[in-house]
Amino acid sequence: MKDNELIVCRDVSLGYEGKSVLTDLDLTIAKGDYLCVVGDNGSGKSTLMRGLLGLIQPQSGTIEHAPALKHGAIGYLPQQTRAQRDFPATVLEVVLSGCLNRQGLYFFYTPAQRSEAMMNLGKLGILELKDACYRDLSGGQQQRVLLARALCAASQLLILDEPITGLDPAAAQDLYKTLAYLNQKEGMAIVMVTHDLKAALKSARTVLHIGRKGLFTGTASDYLASPQGRRFREELES
Ligand SMILES: Nc1ncnc2c1ncn2[C@@H]1O[C@H](COP(=O)(O)OP(=O)(O)OP(=O)(O)O)[C@@H](O)[C@H]1O
Hints:
It contains 9 helices and 9 strands. By secondary structure, it is α/β, with parallel strands linked by helices.
């Protein structure tokens, strides 16, 4: 594995109970990458995220992580469920819980972790909400809180699964701007599953399309020229 590589998938198959959802996947995520993962419902995008996170093991092939990413140092923003939206905790508590992966067996948060949580709330423009109850927030505010939480876990890589679901267009734009800032100014690598191609392709450097006829990986402009991506080009140019 090279120095600038974070995750390398070689000839990977992923699936459940002996049935494959994804096969023949070769993918490298390097430092500072911005990868958008697109494809139809049920094509295996979330399954791939679980594989990258090490939550499921490949049926064949290998998924190698850089030493810096071991011990859970990947920020993850999963698809939100109804129960998670009603979570009864303050914003600061939710954000701090992102530090749990890194603190081993210690139960109490350190002052350094508290200031990191506050810093991430500030970065996302929601510091004034720190004592608010998470479940009383709007969808857009909740998504920012979860992103601040993911940042507490992330040192070099953020994985986001459909982060703009349920957000209005303005809140979605804000989220994309924040991600572009984190990627360009802080060098955070981003892997994002999305159905919102128009906005996503503006920031993404690489696109992975998971389709019934196989996988496509290439730059955003290669994707728009490809058979899989061509149909989106007119939409983007309008
Ligand atoms: N825990 C599981 N056990 C068995 N099968 C599963 C499990 N999770 C997902 N699958 C199956 O794997 C396939 C891919 O699901 P996945 O959630 O990865 O798709 P997706 O591309 O993320 O879909 P969407 O765009 O709808 O979120 C589907 O057929 C799904 O039914």
